[in-house]
Amino acid sequence: MKNSIVKTLDINAPVARVWRALTDHAEFGAWFGVSLERPFAVGQTNSGQLTIKGFEHLVLEVQVQKMDTNRLFSYTWHPYAVDADTDYSGETPTLVEFSLEASTNGTLLTITESGFDKIPAHRRDEAWRMNDGGWAAQIKNIANHVAEPE
Questions:
Q1: For the purposes of burial, counting CB atoms within 10 Å of the CB of 62, is it exposed (0-12), middle (13-18) or buried (19 or more)?
Q2: Mean pLDDT (the chain, rounded)
Q3: d(Cα 89, Cα 150) in Å, to the nearest integer?
Q4: Dihedral sign, Cα of residue 64, residue 117, residue 51, residue 12
Q5: Were both Cys, which of 47, 75, 122, 138 would link to 62 (CB 3.0–4.6 Å)?
Q6: In Å, what is the CA distance from 68 to each residue of 19, 32, 82, 120, 131?
Q7: What residues does the Activator of Hsp90 ATPase homologue 1/2-like C-terminal domain cover (predicted)?
Q8: Which domains does the chain have, with CATH numbers?
Q9: The whole model's pTM is what?
């Protein structure tokens, strides 16, 4: 069983620019596809309506775990929680980590989502598969976002 997803991309933008795109709630929302209610803060939950076509009926909710400036931003959430009639609060959430390192191009960004082994068996494989595809798209979205002139 696959327990984690890892996506890495060398982005042509400075670390500080990628950091801001990850941790400024408005910028995060722009590339991720969510309208977040407030700034990210360690230990706090942030939520907002998804703006991704076909998922507008859903609310994204994340619990910020770490914000180590220009190095690591992480949160927990319930992966592929797409049934609005299902209460996912009893499930153990997965951990999403955005790690940044300076590179010759600018920033080596690694997105890791782990903890799929704790997801109930009846939805584990689909949650992993859907998030694997989702992170493949989202890492490109953030690269395109930081490439745009400010």
A1: buried
A2: 95
A3: 38
A4: positive
A5: 75
A6: 10, 20, 30, 31, 24
A7: 12-146
A8: 4-147 (3.30.530.20)
A9: 0.96
